[in-house]
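tl;dr need the bound structure. longer version: we got a ligand (flavin mononucleotide) that a collaborator sent over and nobodys looked at where it sits. i said id run it. heres the input, straight from their email, havent touched it
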Amino acid sequence: MMFYVLNGSPRKNHNTAKILNSAMEGVRSLVSDAEFRWIHVYDYSYSGCVSCYGCKRIGGTYYGRCAKRDSITGLLEDISQGDALLIGSPVFFHDLPGQLRNFWSVFCTRISSMDKRTLRLRRSASLSPSSIR
Ligand SMILES: Cc1cc2nc3c(=O)[nH]c(=O)nc-3n(C[C@H](O)[C@H](O)[C@H](O)COP(=O)(O)O)c2cc1C
């Protein structure tokens, strides 16, 4: 089973990565054939959804796909064909960091316009560290 591990923190090896690693070890202990692919969203350069509606235009070139071409276009396809998604995010001003919010806006737009028969992804979990003790 392919698990995508999405690290929404700009710091690759800090708190968010630590809780994602713990979750990954938990999954590994339960799922013998689990494979993991890490994605550090700050490694990529992209924008959020630009509301072009290309993915919604029936009969258009990009119907059911993101019309915006950038460094995460392929990743959106890959994740939608994974078995599960683990999302880790720090809290930045009571919200998601901007880079993760942009990723999420295109990912949600992408899967909401897909033919669900071609969507493999069925499970996701989100985790977040907080500075509040
Ligand atoms: C710009 C910024 C804003 C933050 N805002 C919040 C916040 O609103 N609430 C909170 O609990 N922690 C906040 N934090 C703390 C981070 O969420 C916390 O340190 C987290 O563990 C950072 O994750 P990382 O170690 O993976 O980078 C903020 C940190 C930064 C850098």
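gonna send this back to them w/ a short note. The chain is about 30% helix and 15% strand.
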